[in-house]
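#data-curation
PF: Archiving a pair of folding outputs for the training set. Convention for this channel: one message per protein, sequence first, structure tokens after, nothing in between. First:
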Amino acid sequence: MSRPQATSSTATPSAWLKRYYYVRAAFSLIWVALAFTIARQAPHLAAVMLIVYPAWDAAANYADAARNGGLLANPSQALNLGVSVLTALAAAVALNSGMNAVLAVYGGWAVLAGVLQLATGVRRWTSGGQWPMILSGAQSALAGAFFIHAASGDKLPSIVDIAPYAAFGAFYFLVAAVWLSVKDLRRRTIDVGA
């Protein structure tokens, strides 16, 4: 009786991270699908989506930190929460100046959020499945630098220019979720065999 309790308590963080990563991947995939279809022809929907995306990131960081000891115990996520809230507000203001301004805001967010996600992945390394989060954080920072550079160009960007960034995020969250699922399946197989 005591052995199953120990197993379930050690599996809880992994189970939470799996669900969290699957939900984050699903949200991003839906956002990307809308960006490439309906939102590209509907500027008002695109504007709402450009505010919702960082707001969702803030909410997700809060939920994950709350589940894992709170914001004080997770400083990189607490900072990411603040950066994402400020980004949602800045995107709302930048929409009045045009998509170049929005792309610059997203660029700054991608750099900061990427570095903070990388830090969270390093801190959680022992939880397993963190290498996709570390890669995602590094790629986010690089994408942010590209966005900032592109924002000063002559080309008028749109939500379609931001969608690949969200798609890569979805990919990395999905890889992390699948990695943890396979790891848990192997652990259960070993436990049953023992």
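PF: Second:
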Amino acid sequence: MQDPTAAAGPEPLNPAQQAVLDELGASAEDRPEFPDDLRHHLRAALETAVEPHLDDLPDGVDLYLNKHRLAMVHGCEARFLAEEDEPFEWRVPTARGSVVHKAVELAVNWRGPVEPPLLVDEALASLEADQKNLSDWLQGIGEAERAELRSQALDAFSKYLECWPPLKSAWRPVTESRLRAEPCGGRLVLDGKVDLTLGTARGLVAGKVIVDLKTGGTNAVHREDLRFYALVETLRMGVPPRMLASYYLDQATFVSEVVTEDTLRATVLRVADGVDRLVGLLHGDRTPSRVPGPPCRWCPARADCAEGQAWLEERDEA
């Protein structure tokens, strides 16, 4: 039994929690300084690249772009169009992330012991009361589906608490942070919502770390998602984030990247190419590409896609 007269102190960190500190920490000399005109150059480069494509939009129509849309249009364009036509429906796997992120947000600001079941229940109650679309779905699901959602969210949130050290207020943790930029006079809207940010810039010296919390396995597109966030943050603030990190809860591992000007300029080109594809597919005569792969299994266009069916048959026979 613990000695009740012993002085209370911070809980020791386990190896996974210490690894988070080692990965994300940086000394003052390791924090890069960026030019004060960087965001102006990036905005000018982006606007020069995308304006010819935006001129093909119908009058009064703006183009909305987030990380999901950008990733989809750089993959199988036929699947992108099929999913654009499908009305969004909440399901347990998509709702789980919202519940976990809300629980993390509560944990950052929670007074008293952090008990995973309690915070997951509080997150569910908050989402049911506050977010219209998800609220409607939560209010309409049965007990079995709700129990499945709670179980999956509790698993992911418990892994987060096991793997991450308690976030100190001095680190300036912010969850579900919205980022937005509207270049080209608002005809292009770049939008995102970051799972977690830590730190902040000091003058022109980068200090912010942008983190995406992930379940499941690694995927190259996750890095591109974070680079998109870095570009929007730079257009917004003028100073890029210092580091980008995908954290995989099931594996307790990072895939991280230090942000450079080359990273941002490459992302400008990717966004411009995505705008070209989007405008051509949605408002022009671009023939959608077909890129068969694992997503074919749940693609809404699967029944009418010969390439996807052939790919699935080959895998089923292997």
